[in-house]
């Protein structure tokens, strides 16, 4: 399968995705990057965002990840995600409540640690809502 790359998405709970695909676009902390067959080896951290799985030029899956790590090697691409869910399974009302709650937590934070944790929750909630907008990349 020289024209495909093996992709696995793993969360602490289970293996979420495993298939040979044409391309994967991953939201790296230094910017989005595409993994194609024959990609150079790399390890990258992942920011909250959407992984796009492609067959040919068509996006076949969109999976929201809260963060994690991606490893690309000669066997394929593995993403270890803190949490992940298909974009189609995101509940907008729940995501909006999470964002509102996180913003309140930032305002109520009594110390830097609590403020940083709340700001991280805001970033994740904003990214989750952005995923619902349906942009391809």
TrEMBL record:
Gene3D superfamilies: F0F1 ATP synthase delta/epsilon subunit, N-terminal. Residues 6-84 form the ATP synthase F1 complex delta/epsilon subunit N-terminal domain. It is found in: Cell membrane; Endomembrane system. It is a peripheral membrane protein. Keywords: ATP synthesis, Cell membrane, CF(1), Coiled coil, Hydrogen ion transport, Ion transport, Membrane, Transport. InterPro entries: ATP_synth_F1_dsu/esu, ATP_synth_F1_dsu/esu_N, ATPsynth_dsu/esu_N. HAMAP family: ATP_synth_epsil_bac. F-type ATPases have 2 components, CF(1) - the catalytic core - and CF(0) - the membrane proton channel. CF(1) has five subunits: alpha(3), beta(3), gamma(1), delta(1), epsilon(1). CF(0) has three main subunits: a, b and c. NCBIfam families: ATP_synt_epsi (TIGR01216), PRK00571.2-4 (NF001851). Belongs to the ATPase epsilon chain family. Produces ATP from ADP in the presence of a proton gradient across the membrane. This is ATP synthase epsilon chain. It comes from Dongia rigui.
């Amino acid at each position: 399968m020289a024209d495909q790359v093996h992709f696995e998405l793993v969360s602490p709970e289970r293996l979420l995705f495993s298939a040979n695909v044409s391309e994967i676009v991953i939201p790296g902390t230094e910017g989005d990057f595409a993994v194609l067959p024959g990609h150079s080896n790399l390890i990258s951290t992942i920011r909250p965002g959407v992984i796009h799985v492609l067959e040919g030029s068509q996006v076949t899956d969109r999976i929201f990840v809260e963060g994690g790590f991606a490893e690309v090697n000669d066997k394929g691409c593995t993403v270890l995600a803190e949490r992940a869910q298909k974009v189609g399974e995101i509940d907008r009302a729940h995501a909006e409540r999470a964002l509102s709650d996180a913003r309140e937590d930032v305002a109520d934070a009594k110390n830097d640690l609590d403020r940083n944790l709340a700001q991280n929750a805001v970033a994740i909630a904003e990214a989750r809502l952005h995923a619902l907008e349906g942009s391809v990349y």
